[in-house]
Amino acid sequence: TLDRSSAASDVYKRQSCAYADALATAFSVMGGDAALAMANSQDIPIYLIEKTDEGFVSRYSDAFAPYLEEQ
User: Fold this and answer.
1) d(C-alpha 21, C-alpha 68), whole Å
2) pLDDT tens digit string along 49-61?
3) Nearest alpha-carbon partner for 8 in 44, 62, 46, 55
4) Which of 2, 20, 25, 67 satisfies CB 3.0 to 4.6 Å to 11 for a cystine?
5) Mind spelling out the 3-state secondary structure of the chain?
6) What pTM was computed for the model?
7) Is the pLDDT of residue 3 over 70?
8) What is the pLDDT of residue 14?
9) CB atoms within 10 A of CB 53
10) Do 44 and 26 touch, CB atoms closer than 8 A?
């Protein structure tokens, strides 16, 4: 089934914008849990925004953490 909770996904890949776009599309369709599992297993930096009953929630892969600023 198609997971419709994904509001946005962002993938950072230096090799190719087209490849990053293809991954972002795939991760959006997979849903957050599956996308994060795959991204973490492949060391891919991704940032997800998902819609929940309580509002929007953001999550990111381990490889994306270095791109976040300390607040």
Assistant:
1) 20
2) 888 888 899 999 9
3) 46
4) 20
5) CCCCCEEEEEECCCCCHHHHHHHHHHHHHHCHHHHHHHHHHHCCCEEEEEEECCEEEEEECHHHHHHCCCC
6) 0.75
7) no
8) 64
9) 5
10) no
